[in-house]
Amino acid sequence: MTFMKNVLFILFFSLSLNFAYSQEGKIRTAEIKTDIACDHCAVCSSCDQNIYIKVKDNTKGVRKVEIDAEKNIIKVKYNSKRTNLEEIEKAIVLSGFKANQVEPTEEAYNSLDPCCKKK
């Protein structure tokens, strides 16, 4: 009986490792250029939260969002089997910010706090 338990355990463990490695191959990181005009995003965090919420709510498979307001870059770690760069750009644009070459709609841009708009 113990032999059978050991065999089942090894089989289950092998399948788990195989599944874990197959998932890892789908993970990608994108660096998206944007225009964040706010000079105090780290303090008020309204720009950051706006982008985080739009990306997380409007795209499936996003694992992590990092915003570097000084460099105007948004790094997004995502599962390429569940979403793609185009969908992530659309979500960022919904927050009122440019995403690479995609411009936000006037409505989304106007919804930004005054400090987040270009001067």
Automatic annotation (TrEMBL):
Keywords: Signal. InterPro entries: HMA_dom (IPR006121), HMA_dom_sf (IPR036163). Coiled coil: none annotated. It comes from the Bacteria. GO terms for molecular function: metal ion binding. Residues 1-22 form the signal peptide. This is Copper chaperone.
